[in-house]
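Go through this one:
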Amino acid sequence: MHRKEGANLMGTNFYTLSGKHIGKRSAAGQYCWNCNVTLCKGGKENVHSSGGFVVTSSNSIFDYIKHIKTLWYDKCPKCNKEEGVEPLHEGASGRELGFNKEPFKVKSGVTSCSSFTWDVDPITLKRLKYVKSEYGEKLTINEFYDMLKECPIQFYDSIGSDFS
């Protein structure tokens, strides 16, 4: 299943203050915020998939990049809006790499997004006051829910699997 593959991608894990894993935020590629649709041709289920491509001695990283480009639309499949240029200090990839430290801003058009893979039922968080990231950043539960606004793609099929 693609979720298992995506669960190992670089991202940020979140925990309760007692250390229970809540889930993982990961950069999830281009997304049309106007139409609420990923630009991944395989749909949200495949945003973390390489399409089975493996780099070997008979091909190169450039072959891999060329292959990946075949898995994604160049513009929104609904409204035809093209990708915007997004610097690292504003995008989802930059957030996972530590360059984007700004609070989430409401987005429009085609820019990057994040996904969130849940390890606990989100309803159980309602009673919490704080959560923390794997880097020790403490967030109020409201700040955590605000952070989830940059995660329009959310996966619930790993609840209870205790992944990280």
The two ends are 16 Å apart (CA to CA).
